[in-house]
Design a protein that fits this description.
alpha/beta, eight-stranded mixed β-sheet, globular
Length: 585
């Protein structure tokens, strides 16, 4: 069996071992080969080995009598198995089968346990692995095999090359995924219809959860495939810039549609945001035959992670000036290599998301927001006689025009959605296409403070009216890791047991004009409670500790940004662990 094996040093579980320990481990490990279909271990057997996959794929089944109601999961290169039974002394809990020709690094149980006792780093890795497997199990059990259809000219060499690169990436994140080659020697229908229907049905019945069947199809063939696609499936509409026929929403059925440009995008495109995969990414991916290296072809990797539900989505809360803390959080995440694949936000959270996507990075976004919004005089412009709002909003409008110009959502560095409230229709609106500048004004038009925005057939105000931390918007994408940043403070006014503080609080509410304190405190509680409930839908919640009275003090820009930095730094280890678990699951 001649294969490209990954080295022990490339296995994440062993990443914390020093070079000397790795060298000793390499000398003690046996290389084992498992032909496709061979049983590596059976449920109920005694655990004897720790194994790490050097190449190939291993299917994990819950029991030998699996009836297909749960498809199991797949492990790919770099992942490990056998450690749980060795560590616990209990029998093997699942049957493992080689899904294709597979090579493993194999270490006998006693040797593994001695290494575990002697190296604290390995103990930390084991603890993290066990915790993340428990966290991901329910998510994996719910995932069914999927279908990814790549739509483009079937005989085009660039499309064929792109398809192979995508298949390699999918196979990295969803091991043992396969390609279905359509037989174009026969008429499109009914032969293609019957063949595809049966092949897709067999795939959904037999493949493991999270695996993908990749199909390259011409636009005309998509209409034949569409009836057999499901909501978790995805159609990639490849745009070569040649004017060739394109996929339409009507032709993808219930499947998810993503557009991919293999050339320079058209400026001011009013439509859907598109993935842009440069030729350099395809060239680099074709050179890496040993292991997928996501940093070498980031655009291609982002697309593949989108297909396989491994995107990182970030939802940013409302909070007026407190929202400057979002930029501090995003800067730390970016500095630590956390991919910010999809951003959504309300109010200042929406502005932060759009500014980062326009600037191309968190540090550049921080500079822009400091320049245009980083003081009270840059934001406030009161009317002589208030009309629909206390402030005219001209300064905010000028800042939006200077930052975004005639840029559209499709022109941004990454996909973004912002939330606004439509007063005319009485409903929530999610803005993710068309011109960006009106969306900036709409999502931040705090009722009573800044004027409503008339956009198309809507009258829009700040999204805080309908959603404070729009985590649910992340579910519109294929996000496997959802992060919420909530800058809205706790509404607690008196600490438990502080009787004197309670007395002062009651006196302020009971005194002259105390109704204002009752109203303001009640609204603050509504905001705090609502934001907390919405944020709970995320996998990770980051809560910057912003100072009291900072909501409308734009002079505190630097202080509030630093609050975000500190909060992100406190949670970064958890974010990294969750990201690693998502990539490895």
């Amino acid at each position: 069996m001649t294969v490209n094996m990954i080295d022990l040093a490339d296995i994440p579980f062993l990443a914390e071992l020093p070079a000397a320990s790795l060298a000793q481990l390499r000398a003690k490990c046996e290389v084992r080969e498992w032909p496709q279909g061979s049983v590596i271990s059976r449920v109920g057997e005694e655990g004897r080995y720790f194994q790490a996959i050097a190449s190939g794929a291993v299917r994990v089944l819950p029991n030998a009598e699996n009836d297909g109601s749960w498809h199991g999961v797949m492990l790919g290169p770099g992942q490990v198995f056998g450690e749980m039974s060795l560590f616990s002394g209990m029998p093997v809990s699942a049957t493992l089968v080689a899904a294709r020709d597979t090579v493993t690094w194999c270490l006998e149980g006693p040797t593994f346990l001695r290494l575990l006792d002697s190296d604290p780093g390995l103990h930390r890795s084991l603890t993290r692995l066990l915790i993340e497997r428990l966290r991901n199990r329910a998510r994996q059990e719910d995932r069914l095999p999927g279908v990814a259809v790549i739509v483009g000219p079937p005989d085009d060499a660039v499309v064929a090359r792109f398809t192979q690169a995508v298949l390699r990436g999918i196979d990295h994140y969803a091991p043992a995924s396969e390609q279905l080659a359509l037989d174009r020697s026969q008429p499109v229908a009914p032969d293609l219809d019957a063949t595809c229907r049966q092949r897709i049905a067999d795939w959904r019945r037999l493949a493991a959860g999270g695996q993908y069947l990749v199909v390259a199809a011409a636009p005309a063939e998509l209409q034949t495939l569409a009836p057999w696609l499901e909501s978790a499936d995805i159609v990639l509409d490849v745009d070569l810039g040649t004017g060739a026929p394109r996929a339409s929403l009507a032709h993808v059925g219930v499947a998810y549609l993503a557009r991919v440009r293999l050339q320079t995008p058209t400026p001011r495109d009013p439509g859907l945001w598109s993935f842009r995969v440069p030729t350099a990414d395809l060239d680099a991916a074709h050179l890496d035959l040993k292991i997928w290296q996501r940093q070498r072809y980031p655009a291609l990797d982002a697309l593949v992670r989108h297909i396989t539900f491994k995107e990182v989505g970030v939802a940013l809360s409302s909070g007026a000036a407190r929202g400057f803390a979002h930029i501090g959080v995003l800067t730390v995440l970016e500095e630590q290599g956390i991919p910010l694949d999809y951003l959504c936000g309300t109010s200042m959270g929406g502005i932060a998301a759009l500014t980062l996507a326009r600037a191309g990075g968190a540090q550049q976004a921080e500079a822009l927001m400091r320049h245009y919004l980083g003081s009270n005089r840059k934001v406030r412009d009161a009317w002589g006689l208030p009309r629909s709002s206390l402030f005219r909003g001209k300064k905010i409008a000028n800042a939006a025009a200077s930052t975004f110009g005639d840029c559209t959502f499709a022109d941004l560095d990454r996909p973004v959605a912002v939330v606004a409230a439509d007063l005319a229709a009485g409903e929530r609106t999610v803005l993710d296409r068309g011109p960006v500048a009106p969306a900036v004004l709409a999502t931040s038009a705090i009722p009573g403070f800044f004027p409503p925005v008339r956009h198309v057939s809507r009258v829009l105000v700040d999204g805080v009216v309908v959603s404070r931390v729009p985590v649910d918007v992340l579910s519109r994408r294929r996000c496997g890791l959802k992060i919420a940043v909530n800058v809205l403070p706790s509404a607690r006014q008196v600490q438990d047991g502080d009787q004197s503080g309670l007395g002062r609080f009651w006196s302020r509410m009971s005194g002259p004009l105390g109704f204002r304190r009752v109203l303001s405190t009640s609204w603050e509680l509504i905001g705090s409670w609502g934001s907390t409930l919405e944020a709970m839908r995320a996998d990770i919640v980051i809560v910057p500790d912003t100072p009291p009275g900072a909501s409308f003090d734009f002079d505190r820009f630097e202080e509030l940004v630093n609050c975000g930095r500190l909060a992100a730094a406190e949670r970064i280890e958890g974010v990294r662990d969750s990201l690693r678990a998502m990539f490895e699951s």
